[in-house]
Amino acid sequence: MAIREIRKTPDEVLYKKSREVTDFDERLHTLLDDMADTMYEANGVGLAAVQVGILKRVVVIDVGDGIMELINPVIIETKDSQTGTEGCLSFPGQWGIVTRPNYVKVKALDRFGNEQILEGRELLARAFCHEIEHLDGHAFVEKVERFVDPDAE
Ligand code: ZN
């Protein structure tokens, strides 16, 4: 377990597309463990592998209910909408209002390659959308309706 360096804008790796994971081996498990350590150390609720410079479709999320590991995640259903403040460990100090679905269903694999169906509402739905976007080289700033100062609101 180790803390990895979080890549920050304008690091160009953040804008690259990540590749599907095909090997569910020790190397993947180490990456997942390190990503969790890195996310917790940074007080984040989600982290995509690209944010530590690894172009693999791997995401970790913890919105307060324990660690979730998503390999090759795909959004298969969305419902309703929510509008709220969002930030990103790769865009320090930038916060903005983003509208997202309020319910998101995701199909993903676990660290052993088993398929899992995950459902999220509110913050978890937001985290699914935010992290999965990272895997295609996109970031929340593209969707911001207006930037805000969270300390002033
Ligand atoms: Zn992010």
Q: How does CATH name the architecture?
A: Alpha-Beta Complex
Mean pLDDT: 97
Quaternary status: single chain
Query: What is the H/E order?
Result: HEEEEEEEHE
Q: Which superfamily, in CATH terms, is the homologous superfamily?
A: Peptide deformylase
What is the makeup of the main sheet? Answer: 5 strands, antiparallel
Strand content: 25-35%
Name the helicity range: 10-25%
User: Which hetero ligands occur in this complex?
Assistant: zinc ion
Uncertain spans, ≥5 residues at pLDDT below 50? Answer: none
Q: State the domain count.
A: 1
Strand arrangement, major sheet: 1-2-3-6-7
CATH class: Alpha Beta
* Total count of strands: 8
What is the count of helical runs? 2
Radius of gyration: 15 Å
Walk me through this protein's architecture.
By secondary structure, the protein is of the alpha+beta class. It has a single domain, classed as Peptide Deformylase, CATH 3.90.45.10. Helix content is 18%, strand content 31%. The protein has two helices and eight strands, in the order αβββββββαβ. Strands 1-2-3-6-7 form a five-stranded antiparallel beta sheet. A three-stranded antiparallel beta sheet has the order 4-5-8. The mean pLDDT is 97. Bound molecules: zinc ion.
